[in-house]
Specification:
It contains nine helices and eight strands. The protein is an alpha/beta fold. It has a five-stranded parallel β-sheet. Strands 3-4-5 form a three-stranded antiparallel β-sheet, covered by helices on one side. The structure holds 2'-deoxycytidine-5'-monophosphate.
Length: 231
């Protein structure tokens, strides 16, 4: 069977990465979480003191971009690749609410996007990749054979993210998560460079009222149909 490129886009906390991981495991494809890369650059900027609630020294971040090395290393015990920033495993840190609050600002910077998009395109050069993000079907892989756009209500998404963070032991309230989801929706879809939009040829799926199993079965069927169509 021919290997294809699968682009999965959508708003934050729609469960894109869960679907993308399941699909990649089932098809033996590589899974790339492009949001993890934006989060790792944000963490770097936080560590260097370039960004905080009231400060954003984006010139310093831009000039430091060549010093930021991002790689994914597959963790066979977990069954997915973890994010390494300059040799350090940052998989846990990049999921914090602090990073979530600042990442949309970093993702607005064109120089950051250019660097990350280039690396993402390299990772998909041999196809057989499932990548999730905001601009995968529109900018990173505009020729992807399969493009999915995942959606769910903001309340459902905030509830899912809230439960995830509580499970990890983070001290957060539903209200601040809900506000963060709405804030990121706004910035991600109104920024000038590569805003989150639905590609013309994307299939839209609203999973607000679907179980994980229903969703996976639905998407897996769509994927196999597409692979057969292009093979
Ligand atoms: O998918 P996520 O919530 O982990 O993404 C974190 C942020 O990174 C999100 O608010 C917007 C940004 N992002 C982006 O601009 N483009 C991508 N391809 C992926 C993420």
């Amino acid at each position: 069977m021919k290997k294809i490129t699968i682009a999965i886009d959508g708003f934050s906390s729609t469960g894109k990465s869960t679907i993308a991981k399941q699909l990649a495991n089932k098809l033996h494809y590589v899974y790339v979480d492009s949001g993890a890369m934006y989060r790792a650059v944000t963490l770097y900027a936080m560590q260097q003191g370039f960004i905080s609630k009231n400060v954003f020294n984006f010139d310093k971040l831009i000039s430091d971009l060549p010093k930021i090395n991002l790689i994914f290393k597959f963790n066979s015990a977990l069954g997915f690749a973890e994010m390494y920033l300059n040799g350090m495993n940052v998989e846990n840190e990049i999921r914090s609410l602090e990073v979530s609050k600042l990442v949309s600002k970093v993702a607005e910077i064109s120089e950051v996007r250019r660097k990350l998009v280039e690396q993402q395109q390299q990772m998909g050069i041999h196809k057989g990749v499932v990548m999730d993000g905001r601009d995968i079907g529109t900018v990173v892989f505009p020729n992807a054979e399969l493009k999915l756009f995942i959606n769910a209500s903001a309340e459902k998404r905030a509830q899912r993210r809230f439960e995830e963070l509580i499970k990890r032991g983070d001290k957060v309230t539903f209200d601040e998560i809900f506000k963060n989801v709405q804030y990121r929706d706004h910035i991600d879809s109104t920024r000038e460079d590569s805003p989150l939009i639905i590609a013309d040829d994307a299939i839209e799926i609203d999973n607000s009222d679907m179980t994980l199993e229903e969703q996976f079965n639905n998407i897996y069927k769509i994927t196999l149909d597409k692979i057969n169509e292009v093979s």
